[in-house]
Structures
1.
Amino acid sequence: MPEDTSIRIPSGLLPSDGRFGCGPTRVRQSTLDHLAESGSSYMGTSHRRPTVRRMVGRVRSGLTELFGLPDGYEVVLGNGGASAFWDAAAFGLIERASQHLRFGAFSSKFVGVVSGAPHLEAPDVIESPLGTHPMPSPSDRIDLYALTHNETSTGVTMPLRRVEADGLTVVDATSAAGAIAVDPMQFDVYFFSPQKAFGADGGLYVALCSPRALERIDRIAASGRWIPPFLSLSSAVAQSVKDQTYNTPALATLFMLADTVEWMNGQGGLAWSSGRCAANAAMLYGWAEQHPMAQPFVPDPSMRSPIGATIDFRQPLTWAGLAGTLRANGIVDTEPYHKDGNHLRIGLWPSIPHSDMEAFIACLDYVIEAILS
């Protein structure tokens, strides 16, 4: 069923902002206004001078506060996003062999990076069906356990607990960071990009690193292993503690990240932002459980993402018809990641007020009724 552009949702039902994607996510208008107000005093200036270095410092101090990082942890910034961090970790964090939990598209990508690295042993890979998550299995052979806090492609969240083993616990938190509560004592590295919960833009990675991780980075860097300079975690750490990045960062991304982190801290920190997401999730999943034409894609409520909900629909409804009709009415980016199901993927981010989630559900009801009538 293609989209029906003749269905016009009444303006009184529409949310204040129609962006409900799972990444990049909506950027708050106040953040864009603050960036515009900075004028020529920030954009277009040197990243080695105090103006930009102060922005990096705002990011680092803001994230330290948001996550309640203990003494000895460092906020490390580097260019290239989480995809670049997978490559950097293959060079600078894994000594011999890693173990990966694979339960969707993004948790699979780190596996692909490591599997092709000639200086590493073949990784352990533990898989589970889509809509579920596996659990790690400690092994004497493994020195790094790669977890994914939230699998963006399927809408599955797993509890984050340190693996009880000698290896590092390294967590891909790209869609979880800033939206799910986390205990820093449960990870050695928690890395993410700022275009999800933080409503910024891509091209930057952030890695929250424990003292154990920092020691590993230093040890590998001193071992003589060849590491491409752009992917050197040792260089990233050395630059970050000076409130710099290895090379020129995207200045707008830094500004938007700093602005959003400070907004979150001002609202009540991680407890507030994760609470807003959980409330949005409860509304949407509750609706799907009650609607005769819908159901959550993830069957186990404890595994359902509080930040990116995947909702299945029954025929004759189709994801293409629903998403296309919503898009024609200005509600965008609800298309699924995998096209082999019949579901929508809906962002539940801290930037989405409850009133907009209520409006989204009302619009979905309107479109479904119009299609079925």
2.
Amino acid sequence: MTNLDSTLQRRGLMLVLSSPSGAGKTTIANRLLQRDDNLRLSVSVTTRPRRPGEVDGKDYHFIDTAKFETMVAAGELLEHALVHDNYYGTPRRQVAEALDSAGDMLFDIDWQGRRQLAEKEAADLVSVFILPPSAAELARRLKSRAQDSAQVIARRMAKASDEMNQYFDYDYVIVNVDLEHSVRRVHAILEAERFKRVRQVGVRDFVQTLQSDLKTLR
């Protein structure tokens, strides 16, 4: 849980976590959501098949390609990308409503999605790239999930090297050696970014009130 300073009016932010498949971003994202009440997951739409245990509307909004293309054409997606032969996208409305009400949105998306968000909403964006501690550990994590075929795993491993090249676009980089340490580090980033001056939209009025009150106390 988190204790936010409610004295100043604040605009919400978009926290993006990206990584090669298997480096741990989704697990870190889930732990952050458990410990921070003001952080909400941006639920993406996707055309990929639902995995065992996934819930429609909670993990993703699972839709077909025709529906996805309709949403893109209508401008309903803040970002969208083709990843491992499946489409993913972020509904625009849910994000705008959250930021305007001082809510923080968590994005578990790839570098293509982060780049589109940066082009459209750079001021609200905070991005963290998660790296695995070693290539061997990345391969072990992918194989231990037992959710994908050997062919899919091989394709993800082949693509991981290219995905790692995108780290330079991110604000922060974390090597996920220990899960709990990684979660604490990302949460520390989140807390610090919340109190950046540019997000404290109520600070001017607050300072003016303090100055006015000081005059009456002279």
3.
Amino acid sequence: MTSRSLLRMFSSDLAIDLGTANTLVYATGKGIVVDEPSIVAINKKTGKVESVGKDAKEMLGRTPGYMVAIQPMRDGVIADFDAAEEMLQNFIQKAHQRKRLVHPRIVMGIPSETTDVERRAVLDAAYRAKASEVHLVDQAMVAAIGAGLPVTEATGNMVVDIGGGTTDIAVISLSGIVYSRSVRVAGNLMDEKIIEHLRHGHNLVIGERTAEAIKTEVGSAYPSDRPASMDVKGRDVLKGIPRTVSVREEEIRQALSGCVSLIVQAIRVALERIPPELSADISDRGIVLTGGGSLLKNLDKRIQTETNLPVSLAEDPLTSVVMGTAKMLEDFSLLRKLAILN
């Protein structure tokens, strides 16, 4: 038995959606085996990683002084290389039931406007996490494939993938990207705007997890028939004691309006820059939204109103990228055509 075939015995190919907010891992023959927050908890006294993913997220805002919970990804790219490597290694081992002798082939989606340096950092982190091969593909392309769009046909398909760190917009035809753009406006920035609004509008300090809950419960991009409200607990800015305030959907929509407008503007620019024939296709087929950020209430209505085009949500927006990336594992001829770096 050759060393290469022996290596394959201990390997299982993986598709990874290395997201700013969450990381999903798909293992060949098993499906999605990891779906966890992209967070690492580090002990500053020892410099060691204490926990990764869900366990680390539980520590957000609750850690003692010597423990810090960090997000290795920022705006879709690696911000902390060592933490990203540890996180990847942990998730790869988790995907393989903690087996040590695994050197998988890995395919990962990455935002279209990342620099060569940023892409190289992702490659290096994956190789140092014991991958045997690493292939990077355009995130919007794999999101379109995962959403079931007919990307190999000679018709225009438009996908808008709104993640935690970036919104990736692409127009695809004949397995090629006709236009793509990545803007660093997405779910995390929305959370920051909610935190800012509560601080300035209600003199209340809240954490990231509370902001995310507000976005999910009462966040919206377009007026609702039945506006919602919710009670929010935080710390009073002036008195420093716990306090509860009620927030309304309308005020959160206003807080998020800048983010939503930037996403809509990026979509408008894409529509202006593509060939007329493809514009005609998109006017028939519409725009497909994927990613966790696309779940913001009435975002599809807002985009539809602004563009006069049909807008629909992918069947499972949260898994479109990883499922599209997984299809690359099954079709290496398509992967070779679409790979950015390997």
4.
Amino acid sequence: MTKTVQQPSLAVLYVRSFLFWAGFALLIGVFALLLLLSFPFPLEKRFLLTRAWSGMTIGWLRIICKLSYEVQGVENIGAQPGIVFAKHQSTWETLTLNFWFTPQSWVVKRELLWAPIFGWGMYMMNPIALDRGAGKRAIEQLVEQGRERLEKGRWIIIFPEGTRIAPGKKGRYRIGGAILAERTGYAVTPVAHNAGEFWPRRQFIKKPGVIQVRIGPRIESKNKTAQQILSEAERWIESEMANITTLQQHDYGKNPVT
């Protein structure tokens, strides 16, 4: 006989989520300040700070909200850095990708750097900040700065759909990251996960459970067009999403947060 697992009440979920957000805000403030104060130190030392922040935040999430994760495919991560194409559903993956891909540089919208405290801390991590409205100039910036960071041994983190996509949905995969791979010859590592089912976009409540993460085999870029690279990555990610998406959605707690 299968035992039914009783879900927490709405009140319990609200309390847990409130405690998580309070701790989350505190950790952001503390570590953003530490990053600003770390400017005399080399970038590699700052990566230690960001990993500590991520680890403490994810640990707090597990303790308070009973939300953990399982990852498969870590063996696919090679010794040489490359370009990561990750599914973007939540804030969760922005915290955890540096567990497996480090040191790293994000490709972000330039406007994110203008946010007080968080944006300043992000600036200290030397991201590739693009003006999305710049068209071809943004692509050239991505290739130039991406090549420079790859040659320094950093992973490039790209969300090819460009924005957070709700579970069960699929955005348009953009070509920029694939052009970077085509022109530099570095491989692409695809990443799929279902974090949006538990930490939904713009919802206050965090749902308990186990997030599934899948890291795919490296997609070699040599002798391939950008469109071929993008299509291979898209097929792998969306195939894995079909396997791990459970669509355990809920209607409560739809307060705009993050």
